[in-house]
Amino acid sequence: MPVRNVIRVPAPDSFFHVYNRGHNKGLLFTDTQDYDFFIFLLQRCFGPIQLKTAKGRTYPWFGDEVRIQAFCLMPNHFHLLLYQHSNPSALSRSMQSLATTYSMYFNKRHKKRGSVFESVFKATPIMNDAYLQHITRYIHLNPKHYRQWQYSSYRTYLGDSGYAWVDCSRVLNLFDSQTQYRDFIDDYLGLRDELEKLKYDLADHGENL
């Protein structure tokens, strides 16, 4: 099972399950605009190319050091699967940039002050291919109606081009086809207890991510 708690010095050339939630279990995303802005930040930070403003200025970008492999946003929390290349500080720097930008946006838009996120993000290293497969299922199964949930990368894994900047290849290469991956996700009823155990191990006692 994964190591719990925040990874202080993430190892290079590794996959990480990264997650966080709203301060005092509050909402991180109140409507479509919030979801869309956070997804834009994911593309801006971790996409394959550096994006620019309308005036031609470049945004902060970490996609040459950290690539996003999967994600799911829920009203009061999020899950990301990130792959960090050789720079061991890239994941921390990229997540700090993303959290700071979103917090500024959220507080300004909703006329709030103070912390938006519960704490510093948590990152769990993925130790083998079997767990890599399993964690993507866990991420994509967070919404009850996961097939229709538009704020995750699940449909991208099945060929939808909406989030083409998500790098699905490393996970899909572990399957014979996208259809096999879909069946792997759908075949979860017998694994419900295992998923609940994983949820317990990833969160603090008594807390629900």
Topology overview:
Blueprint: E1 14-21, H1 32-46, E2 66-74, E3 77-84, H2 90-110, E4 122-126, H3 129-140, H4 154-157, H5 169-172, H6 178-186, H7 192-202
Antiparallel strand pairs: 1-3, 1-4, 2-3
Helix pairs in contact: 1-2
Can you offer a commentary on this structure?
The protein has 209 residues and is of the alpha+beta class. Helices cover 36% and strands 14% of the residues. It contains 7 helices and 4 strands; from the N terminus they run βαββαβααααα. It has helices at 32-46, 90-110, 129-140, 154-157, 169-172, 178-186, 192-202, and strands spanning 14-21, 66-74, 77-84, 122-126. A 4-stranded antiparallel beta sheet has the order 2-3-1-4, with helices on both faces. The chain is globular, with a radius of gyration of 16 Å. Mean pLDDT is 89; it is low at 1-9 and 205-209.
